[in-house]
Design goal:
Elements lengths: L13 H5 L3 E5 L3 H13 L3 E6 L22 H12 L4 E6 L7 H5 L4 E4 L4 H14 L5 E4 L12 E5 L2 E5 L11 H21 L4
Parallel strand pairs: 1-2, 1-4, 2-3, 4-5, 5-7
Antiparallel strand pairs: 6-7
Length: 202
């Protein structure tokens, strides 16, 4: 089996570039798991994933897991699914709670970081910590993805090496719908691919 056949319908030239790139994903929930799958299908060479949760039934409405994964570490389950898509992918999985003290050491090998946390305060320290230690490496974040419909409100904002995807308004109290979470996650993956292929937009 020729693994490269997986990517023959991808945009010409992107696989050659992406196969040499590493993306870090901080969090393996609705955003992180779906973004990881999209990046794997795009032909990324290596993913560094980190999370300290296990798969629960309530995750299955929006996260890239299945009933058989319930009770497993999210990092283990996600790594298995990604390798089932592309066995040639390099996956470095860390079952650990991310903190400002360990973030940079875990993801120092990444060309770009995807922020995939649930809580605003965690998003804030991740962005601040990353930008202080790696000012020349992009971080792609998400904010405001709950509810359903209102697709046109989901957009992208850029400020230097910080990219934000979402509607920037809704909060978790509205509940989460698989389609809207997946749109935001795929927006993050799409922005990451463009940055890795073309560089950050000025």
């Amino acid at each position: 089996m020729d693994i490269e056949e997986i990517f023959k319908r991808n945009v010409p030239g992107t696989r050659d570039i992406l196969s040499k790139k590493t993306v870090g994903i901080a969090g393996c929930g609705g955003l992180g798991s779906n973004a990881a799958a999209a990046l794997t299908r795009a032909g990324i060479g290596k993913l560094i994933i980190a999370d300290f949760d296990v798969v629960e039934l309530s995750n299955l409405n929006r996260q890239y897991y299945f009933l058989a994964d319930v009770g497993k570490k999210k990092t283990d389950a996600l790594a298995a699914h990604l390798l089932a898509i592309n066995p040639g992918l390099a996956v470095e999985a860390h079952f650990i709670e991310l903190t400002p003290d360990n973030l940079c050491e875990l993801f120092k090998g990444a060309d770009l970081l995807i922020e995939a946390f649930d809580k605003a305060e965690r998003k804030a320290w991740l962005i601040e910590t990353w930008c202080v230690h790696f000012p020349h490496k992009p971080v792609v974040c998400a904010s405001g993805l709950s509810g359903y419909g209102n697709t046109g409100a989901l957009t992208v904002r850029r400020s230097g090496n910080i990219v934000m995807c979402g509607d920037f308004e809704t909060d978790m109290s509205m509940g989460l719908t698989s389609s809207r979470v997946a749109i935001a996650a795929n927006m993050q993956a799409n922005e990451a691919i463009e940055i890795l292929v073309k560089g950050i937009k000025k």
